[in-house]
Amino acid sequence: MAATDREIAAMRRALALALHGPRGLNPQVGAVLLSPDGEVIAEGWHRGAGTPHAEVDALSKLAPGGARGATAVVTLEPCNHTGRTGPCSEALIAAGVARVVYAVDDPGAHSSGGGRRLREAGVDVEAGVLAAEGQALLDSWLTVQRLGRPLVTLKWAQSLDGRAAADDGTSQWITGPEARADVHRRRSEADAILVGTGTLLADDPALTARRPDGSLFDAQPRPVVVGTRAVPQDAQVRRHPRPFMQDEGDDLPDLLSRLRELGAHRVFVEGGPTLASAFLREGLVDEVLVYLAPTLIGGSRLAVGDIGVGTIDAQRRLDLSSVERLGRDLLMIARPLTTSEEIS
Predict the structure, then answer these.
(1) I want to staple 179 with a disulfide (CB 3.0 to 4.6 A). Which of 42, 175, 225, 316 is the partner?
(2) Predicted model pTM
(3) 246 and 128 in a common domain
(4) End-to-end Cα, the chain, rounded Å
């Protein structure tokens, strides 16, 4: 049975509830319980590692037997394993829930299978409701589960003719204040920010996330400098609120793996065509942000260099998901197409 209007409304509420939970090593999950006649009877969300999962949090708001015959609407497929807490699938079965509606399948090797377990117990299950919104909520966590590395966002600013800097190497500022404010907001949402030594030496970026008034956001990304050249003693990055990390850059998958071990789920690659090209060449980019300024620079300083495309048949196709006006500039957000998406 397809999801009802009330179930879809409950899913939107569950997605909003999920945002109350902390971002980190565990997914943000929300849950809403509906009575047999479609009324909301309880809500819950996951508050962090070791705390009850969203479904169990919602069930705890009801008296024993209060969920019998109810519908559970959850942003992520109920888990089917025992970790710090028990399986949510078993908790829902024990509570007598008659139907479960969820947005996104759990790709975890140990936690998946909750939907199958529920069906085996006679519970009606509807998957994929508002799946796109669920995927957007969980994008970094899903990337870690599927690929074992953080989600990588690659950002660059360029002129209309594709240049990221003038021939003398200067690049501040191609875009206007609105675009720069958007970049800083996105920095604050990342766990790590990566920049190449070429950009570091040319621009001396602070790599902090700042509000338009210059004050720092509470959340700051870990600064990572990629390259072998020494970081000057007076570089601004040395005054970053978090100690910077330097990597030689000869093994980007290993760098991402180490950042994952340090708790990074979302990595923001910013600054330098050499670094940008390396990530693209190795197929390590999940999202591309291009800030396009209505200006012409000319010269040889292209925003992106060699990405391993020798013929037009090897071009890296992207899906353009949004275009936004920011002052005089445009922000284009795109993601790489999979092989199957390119064929279709």
Answers:
(1) 175
(2) 0.82
(3) no
(4) 28
